[in-house]
Amino acid sequence: MADIMNQLEQKPSAMRRLVNLAIEYNFIVIFLFVVTIASLLSENFLTPTNISNLFQQAAVVGVVAIGMTFVILTGNIDLSVGSVVALCGMIAAIMLASGMPIVLAIGITICAGAACGAFMGAISAYAQVPSFIVTLAGLVSFRGLTYLSTEGVPVSGLPSAFAAFSSTMVPIFPGFQLSSMGLIFTVLCVLAGLLLSKTVFGENIYATGGNPEAARLSGIPTRRIIVSVFAVSGIMSALGGLLLTSRLRIGQPTAAQGLELDAIAAVVLGGTSLFGGRGSILGTAFAVMLLQVLRNIFNLLGLGSFYQMTVTGIIIIAAILLNRFIDIRRGRG
Amino acid sequence: MTLASQVKDRLEQEPNILSISNISKHFPPNIIALADAGLDVRKGEVHCLLGANGAGKSTFLKLVAGAMMPTSGEIRVDGKAVKFRSPAEATAVGISMIYQELDLVPQLTVAQNLFLGHPPNNRGILDTKTRRIEAEKALKRVGARFGPDAKVESLSIANQQLTAIARSLTREAKVIIMDEPSAALNENELEAVFQVIRELTAQGVAIVYVSHRLGELREIGDRVTVLRGGRTIETFDVEGTPDSALIEAIMGKDRQLIERKERQPVTGDVVLDVKRLQGAQGLDIRDFLLRRGEIIGLTGLNGSGRTSFLMSLFGARSHEADMTLDGVPYAPKNPRAAIRNGFGLVPEDRKTEGLILQSPIYKNATLPSMQGQFWGRHSYQKKRTIPVLDQLATKYGRPEQNVVQLSGGNQQKVVLAKWIIKGSQLLLLDEPSRGLDISAKADLYKLVDGLARDGAAVIVASSELEELYAACDSIWVFHEGRNIARYNPSETDQDTILKCQILGEHSGVNTDG
Predict the structure, then answer these.
(1) Which of B150, B172, B194 is the last residue of a domain?
(2) Within an 8 Å CB–CB cutoff, is residue A4 touching chain B?
């Protein structure tokens, strides 16, 4: 122990510090590496249009992954996000198709998402059922509800103004504009990052995930914290559903199947521990973009989705092994 | 010639089955968990091991059971020197350990547990028939009244204890080490375990029996070895050795006393008045009064209810109580309610209950104080933390360091800092000095004294009586869930309190409550 402290108290050299930083933020290093490869492979990669497209394509998974980060930071998991995205997308589509004002429909949809999440979170926290089980049930039931709402038929006839929710092009700086979808994702990343790092709520999330018993004995309402993170995940899923419906311009009950796995993969790839207490939105954001860039590379190379799936899995395993290695090196293993 | 002395004579002729000499365990750079301990176990005897908390018993047991390797010293089994690199190697030569938290798999059957790790098999195919037969044999030897197909989780603690003993037998144990087997047993259950021990010793198995309780030792033990400060002090024959000699060996003659300062009589108002507090495992506390400015010590053996009492006051354990706080009925539903009422708890285990280890010092220290606010104000949190840590003489690099990097004593100071920063006026300290060196302990109690002078009321639970003796206005002895006697340390000597703590009875002469 004293050895470790001595090491820490010595001022490391600039080089050493840089290496430590690179290890700490390894997901950024990997991201830059992949981006470099992509730009070497195709000169179309680093164009404003393609970058804007990347953000647009990553937005739905990205928004959902933000919510997932909150849940995983408390040591829980939310498998229901894909189904909640579809359900909320359908709810919004049905309301809009029946002529409800857009703002009201968005508001109600977000509330519905929050309720779905909070409900599952409450069962998990108060009845002490593992969240894996509760949200697995949610995954099945919410999908069922989605089909039931229209007997499985897609909903069309949405007001064209609703499309603007996802695809308004917003100029960021001269020569580069981002779709509102990509912008919403970016802004949510910033807000979520601030919420986690600057607020007591954020600290309570880390504390609850890091050591639930110590958190409870410090007066943190740990069960309420768990309900809240699931509510956040529900809200993010609702937003994901709204963005998806807005982009597709129909309510599609089969949408977002398997989305939960993409979201979990992004969170874990971003260095957030599945045991809770450690991780960040920054990591999740980079991981989401990393996975999108990978897809982009495969498309540029003309390789099909079978390759994409295989390689994505390998990269996730490699990233986890890297994080394990870092943990062991720091004596946290 | 009495029967007991006949047994004694027979034992004296038996060879040493296990012989441990001069073993030590150091943890670099400077922690000595065990300095120089030894023990000879004869075939068929019950050899008791006594020692206060921190005497090195658990380290000693781990070395013998192969869970750790000694730094120096020698272990001989049947006269042959052995070096265990793993518990499996210890079991292989016939040394079997039964831990206090029984290491059985509750979801499996008794038979599966008995042969855990070494099931009878034929090229990898389980031989369940043989396993059942062998299991029945082993269970019969320990006098079990349950079958090999029972699930361990459905058994009482006593029967689980028997299962653990039976498991030792399936490994042909020559020496069975039992670490405080009585902690979770009632008298009848314990008697059943004793019966088994007697039968096993008659068959030549030796038992190393660890317990705090002198009564048990008298009933079952042949010889007793006392450890103190990581050293073997002496081995006695149980017969003919008075309690006083054992207690002296446990405590030592030349105790390193923290100087007791004469304390002003406490004149503050009664803050906490516990008329009755009842909880699980027979916790039943009556008429417990705490005044402003008062420091009350709780002493008692492990499992005497000290921790349960503190956790109940803190709203962290379910209980039923009739108590008032500043004259108002007080019934904390959860720790949050207790904290709002001015309570602060330094829990028994700082690592699992006190700290978020992978989180910075300043965040840990301000965790309770920040509740109810929206923005975390990092610079403000650090500004609040640093002076308190300095006041506690905490050694740390930067406030952003994760607490896991601090030494144990400094971690404990961070836990205490939580409540000082929060401004808690009712401090519940559960083994606060664990892992602190002598000067840090003195600092801690000086600080507690200062807080009490400023009007805080403090309850300190500690297994180190000397500390309580030096620091407290009065000391309550807890025994098997009840507060049986209150002593004024200015008027009572330590041995009286210690005797009361171990024997669970008090002379009544020196009590004033």
Answers:
(1) B172
(2) yes
